[in-house]
Amino acid sequence: MARAEPPPATFERRVLRSAAGHHYLRVRLELPDGGARPNAAQLKQLVVAALRELHGEVGAALPVDVLTYEEKTLSAILRVVSSGFVKLWSALTLLGFYQNRRCAFRVLQTSPFLLALSGNSRELVLD
């Protein structure tokens, strides 16, 4: 009796997209020469300018919210619609100047859930 060959293996690619409407980024602005520190409104203008510089008017029209901002540490939590997450991250990464001074945004954490940014397990101190 002839043995039946098994059917050839098939490959199926599945891409799952997050159902979250927004993404959150914890960022820190680094100003190596010190100088004047931006307030929350100036930070928002800097983010919009970075989007406009890299992605034009379409990028500048992305709804980005500054949820929290600590002027002492220059760190902030930003909220953006999920469809603009990669555009915002790339614009912040490529930004190099603030008021003709060198600067850099460091993206510290990202998540589709705001609660995930509330703590950092690497900084957790157990008694």
Largest sheet features: 4 strands, antiparallel
- Strand residue percentage: 25-35%
Strand order of the largest sheet: 2-3-1-6
- Secondary structure class reads alpha+beta
Distance between the termini: 71 Å
Contiguous low-pLDDT stretches (5 residues minimum) are none
Question: Helix and strand string, N-terminal first?
Answer: EHEEHEEE
Helix count from the secondary structure assignment? 2
Task: Compute the number of strand runs.
Answer: 6
Shape: elongated
Overall mean pLDDT stands at 88
Helix residue percentage: 10-25%
What is Rg?
21 Å
Q: Key features?
A:
127 residues, alpha+beta, four-stranded antiparallel beta sheet, two-stranded antiparallel ribbon, 2 helices, elongated
Description:
The structure is a single chain. The chain is an alpha+beta fold and 127 residues long. The protein has helices at 40-60, 85-94; strands at 22-30, 64-70, 75-81, 97-98, 101-102, 104-111. A hairpin with a 4-residue loop joins strand 2 and strand 3 (75-81). The radius of gyration is 21 Å and the shape is elongated.
